[in-house]
């Protein structure tokens, strides 16, 4: 039990870090997709 108590906080931190990285990664992908679609729409309007 002592061992798990010692390792659990670091594991939780690692998990949270991974979640944060994943969230940032996906948000950047969504931004790129949003800007790409926006540019495509504006190009269509220009044409």
UniProtKB/TrEMBL annotation:
It comes from the Eukaryota. This is Uncharacterized protein. It comes from Argulus foliaceus. The lineage of its organism: Eukaryota, Metazoa, Ecdysozoa, Arthropoda, Crustacea.
